[in-house]
Amino acid sequence: MFNLPPGLKQLEQTSAGRDWLQQLSTHVQACVDRWSLCLNPPYEPSNVSIVFPGTMADGSPAVLKVQFPHKESEHEAEALRRWNGEGAVKLFATDPEHHALLMERCVPGHHLSAAEPAQALEVFAQILPRLWIEASEPFVSLLDESAEWIKDLPLSWERAGRPFEVELLEAAMEAIETVRRNPGQQVLIHQDLHGDNVLRATREPWLVIDPKPLTGEREFSLAPIVRSYEFGHAREEAIHRLNWLASALRLDRERARLWSLGQTLAWACEDGDVLPRHVETARWLWQA
To answer: What is the pLDDT of residues 213-236, one digit of tens each?
Structure first.
């Protein structure tokens, strides 16, 4: 029926992943039948979910996303529903039984990561305030999520063979503890808003995709952009992104720095694997 994108083959390493892959054709066909879709081959960069461009019965473009059930994707549909097309792709329909979303397709669909860094920062500055809407349930809170980072970071560091200095580990944990003590206004945030999750579109110049929603303070939103190495991986470039966005969006620069340090290192050594560029960025943020 379709060729499996290479990135999804890593799901074969777990029993849950193997079960999902075995049922995937059934899930996709059920969605095709329910929504009268004509699908093209799936996008190659499918890593946890499988995503197909296609058309609906009336010929209009759409995207079908069938998710591998996991924590970060749990409330993706609800986030898109709340945003209602404001700065993000529109959600047309969902099928909870098959963990499927039918969404607006971005045409031409070029990634913001390919844009000039200065242009990309302008786009982020325009989009982020539109995403910051009041929200609470059913989304996971940043306070709860960051509590898990504090618990897991030392364990992940040990499992990875202590891949960086203990002082950096302690600095990241202290940063998270500091910003957790007096949280700001809670809004809906996209905790993985980097350049590949913003696409060129026609309804609006750029639209956000693939939310991993949390409720938390606005300053946290800068973390994935600050560490976006596609816009330049050097100390001066990462710190420039932090300073420019904090100023343009009138955010607390120090809180944005602390959140960026904490989450970047928390995501640097998950499951025993180490992301060296995340570690380098965390070092730059340590005393920036």
So the answer is: 999 999 999 999 999 999 999 999
